[in-house]
Amino acid sequence: MIELSHVTKRFGATLALDDVSFAVRPGSIVSFLGPNGAGKSTALRCLVGLVQPDTGTATVAGVAYRTLRSPGLVAGVLLNADDAHPGRTGRETLRLACLTLGLPFSRADEVLAEVGLSRAESRRRVRTYSLGMRQRLGIARALLGDPSVLVLDEPANGLDPQGQRWLAGLLRQRAERGGAVLLSSHQLAEVARIADRVVMIGAGRVLANRPLADAGAAELEDEYFTLTSGVDRAA
C-alpha cells in the first residue's frame, strides 16, 4: 500500500536520497530508522507529495498521493505536530479538517476520545498544549478519515510511557485491521516491540530492509549503530 521505488532526490549539490526503495504491505508496521539528516523526512515528504523526486516513484495505494481524490480518507499523515494553528482549539482544528474531508463534525469528537484528549482539553487553545498533547492532536487528525494507511514521523515524541504504550496498541490495532503503517522513530526499544519490519537509512541510502522477527532491542540497537556509524549525514 506504500511503495518507494528507486527514489533519488538532490537539493543543489546535496544528494538527499540515493535510489531509495522499500514497501509497506497491508497488515504491517514498518519502522523507518536513521540518524538526524539521514533522509527520512525527505523520503516521507516525497511520499505525501510535498517534495518531487528527481527520479523514481513514491505511491500510496498504487498512485501518487497528490492524485488521490480525497487523500485524508486513504492516508493519515503526521509529519509535524506543531503545524496546527496555535490560536484555534483542538476541537476547532479537527472540525475544520472534517469540513475539508466531507465528514460530520461528530467524527472530530470520536477521534478526540480515541486519542485520549478530554472534552476540556479539546476546548483549549493549541498554543497551551504540551508536546504530548500536540502529538495526540496530530494523531487524531491523521485518524480522522479512518484511513487504511498511516504515515507518522516521530509520533511518540513527547508522549509519556503510558502514551507510548497507548500508541503502540493503536498502531497494532490498525495493522491487524489490514492497514499499512509507516513509522519514523528514534526509539529503538519501542520499534523492536511493535514493528514487523525495519528499514534503516543513512546518508540517503537504504542500509537495511528486513523483518524484525524475534530480534530484541539490544540486537536492533547493535545493528543500528554498526550500520550508521561513520555514515555522513545528508542535508
TrEMBL record:
Q: Which UniProt keywords apply?
A: ATP-binding, Nucleotide-binding, Transport
Q: Which domain of life is it from?
A: Bacteria
Q: Does the keyword ATP-binding apply?
A: yes
- Tell me one GO molecular function of this protein: ATP binding
Q: Which residues form the ABC transporter domain?
A: 2-228
**Provenance organism:** Micropruina glycogenica
**What family, per the record?**
Belongs to the ABC transporter superfamily.
InterPro entries per the UniProt record, alphabetical = AAA+_ATPase, ABC_transporter-like_ATP-bd, ABC_transporter-like_CS, P-loop_NTPase
Does the UniProt entry include the keyword Nucleotide-binding?
Answer: yes
- PROSITE patterns, per the entry: ABC_TRANSPORTER_1, ABC_TRANSPORTER_2
Listed SUPFAM superfamilies: P-loop containing nucleoside triphosphate hydrolases
Q: What is this protein called?
A: ABC transporter, ATP-binding protein
